[in-house]
Amino acid sequence: MWQAGLILISLLVLIEAKNDKLKEIFKWNQIDFAFPDEQTRNASIASGEFKKENNMPLGIEIWKDRVFITVPRWKSGVPSTLNYVKVTDGESPLLHPYPNWETNNVTEEKNYTIGNTFRVRADECGRLWVIDSGLINIVESPKVLSPPKIMIFNLTTDELIREYHLKPSDIKDDSFFANIVVDVSPDKCDEAFAYLPDLGSYCLVVYSYKENESYRINHHYFHFDPLYGDYNISGVNFQWTDGLFGISLSPLNENGFRTMYFHPLSSINEFTVSTEIIQNKTVASESYHEFKLLGSRGPYSQATTSFIDEKSGVMFYTQVNKNGVGCWNSKKFPNDYSINTNTLVVSDDETMVFPNDLKVDRDSNLWVLTDRLPEFIYRNLNKDQINFRVLKAPVSEVIKGTVCDN
Ligand SMILES: *[C@@H]1O[C@H](CO)[C@@H](O)[C@H](O)[C@H]1NC(C)=O
Ligand SMILES: *[C@@H]1O[C@H](CO)[C@@H](O)[C@H](O)[C@H]1NC(C)=O
Ligand SMILES: *[C@@H]1O[C@H](CO)[C@@H](O)[C@H](O)[C@H]1NC(C)=O
Ligand SMILES: *[C@@H]1O[C@H](CO)[C@@H](O)[C@H](O)[C@H]1NC(C)=O
Ligand SMILES: *[C@@H]1O[C@H](CO)[C@@H](O)[C@H](O)[C@H]1NC(C)=O
Ligand SMILES: *[C@@H]1O[C@H](CO)[C@@H](O)[C@H](O)[C@H]1NC(C)=O
Ligand SMILES: *[C@@H]1O[C@H](CO)[C@@H](O)[C@H](O)[C@H]1NC(C)=O
C-alpha cells in the first residue's frame, strides 16, 4: 500500500508540472479595453464591434514601461488588434489601442488601418514593427482587408513612419504571416531587415528597410514535418500543418552578419543559416546547402516563437505540448543541439497552458504570454477561470542550475 502510494505521488509530481520561477505580472479571465467612454463601449457591444468572449491575447513585446499585447481577429468582435498596457497598470489592466482607436477600427473600410496582427517587434532604434496579416475573422468568415503589410511606428511620437504592402510575388494562396523578426544594429538603423516567416506556404519573406523592397525565399527546411503535426493540449487533440514559424538571431558574428536559427511549428528540429545569405536576394534561393540542420529537441517539443538573449547566448522557445518554456545555450553548446543540451526550464499545467509568445527585454528579463489557444479556437473558454497570463523573471534565475546556465 505504502509503496503504491509513493508511486502514485511520484507520478503526480511528473504529471502536475508547477511553475516556481516565473512571476505573474498580468492575468485575465477575459480581456477588456480602455474605451473613450462608457457610451462608446455600450454602443460597441450593441453593434457587435466588441464581443468580449472573442478576444484572446497572443503576442507580446516590451518597450520601456509599455507592454504591447496583440489581440488577433480570429473571430468577429475584436475592437482593437494592437494594444499596450503599462507595467504599473495593475494585475488585470484594460488594453489601450496603439497608436489609437481609429487606426484599429475596422468597422468602416479605410486606408491606414491595422487589420489583424499576431506579433510585433520593437527594435533598437525606437521603432515598432508590425506585421498585419490583412485577413480578419479567420475562423468565422474570413475577409481580406488588405494584402499583408508591414507598418513601422516611431515609439517616441507613436507616428506611422512607413507602411509597406507585400508584393503579389511575395504571397501565395495559403500564405499566413504571424511573426516578425527585426535584424538591425543600433548604429545602422537604416540598414534594418525584417524577416517574415510564412507558416502557410512554407517560405520566408525578407524586407530591406534601406531598399524598401521585399523578396521571397524558399527552402525544404521551411516545411512542416508530417510526423510532428499532432498536438494534445489540455485535453484538446488537433493537427496543424504550420511551417516556418520561430526565428531567433545570434549576436553579430565577426563577419558582421548573424546566425539565423529557425524552426517550423509542426517539427522538433532546429535549423540555421547565415543572414549573409538571407540578405542577398540573388543568392538566397540558390544556396541550398548553406541551410543546415542544427539538431532535434526530442519528442513533443513543438515550438511557436523563440528568442535569443544576447548577453547569455541562451535561446528560449515555447513548448506548446508541454505547457512550458525550453532553452538551449548557444555559447556553451554551439555545435550540440540535442535532447541533452536542451531542457524544459519552466512548465505549469495550470498557468502555462499554451505559451504563445515570449521575448527577453533589454534588462534581461524573460516574458511569456500564455493563452489556452486550443480551447479558445476549438471549444470555449470558461470565463470563470483565469485564461490569459503574462509571466516574467530574470533570465539568470530562470536558467540557474540547469544545462542552460553558463
Ligand atoms: C451602459 O450599459 C450598462 C449596462 O447595460 C448600463 O448600466 C449603463 O447605464 C450604460 N451606460 C451608458 C452611458 O449608456
Ligand atoms: C469605430 O468606427 C465606427 C464607425 O465610425 C464607430 O461607430 C465606432 O464608435 C468606432 N469604435 C470605436 C471603439 O471608436
Ligand atoms: C485609399 O487610398 C487610395 C490611394 O491612396 C485611394 O484611392 C482610396 O480612395 C482610399 N480609400 C479610402 C476608403 O479612403
Ligand atoms: C521619432 O521621433 C523623434 C521626435 O520627432 C525623432 O527625434 C526620432 O528621430 C524619431 N525616430 C525615428 C526612428 O523615426
Ligand atoms: C516604399 O514602397 C511603397 C510601395 O511598395 C511606397 O508606397 C512607399 O512610399 C515607399 N516608402 C519609402 C519610404 O520609400
Ligand atoms: C494524443 O492523444 C491521442 C489520443 O489519446 C494519442 O493517440 C496520441 O498519440 C497523442 N499524441 C501526442 C502527440 O501526444
Ligand atoms: C550577393 O552575393 C553575390 C555572390 O556572392 C555577390 O556577388 C553580391 O555582391 C552580393 N550582393 C550583395 C548586395 O551583397
TrEMBL record:
InterPro entries: 6-blade_b-propeller_TolB-like, MRJP/yellow-related
GO cellular component, one term: extracellular region
Keywords linked to the UniProt accession: Secreted, Signal
Keyword Signal: yes
Domain of life of the source: Eukaryota
Residues making up the signal peptide according to the UniProt record: 1-17
Pfam assignment, any one: MRJP
Entry's localization field: Secreted
Broad class of where this protein is predominantly found: secreted
PANTHER family: PROTEIN YELLOW-RELATED (PTHR10009), RH54244P (PTHR10009:SF11)
Stated family: Belongs to the major royal jelly protein family.
Protein name: Uncharacterized protein
Species assigned in the record: Nezara viridula (Southern green stink bug)
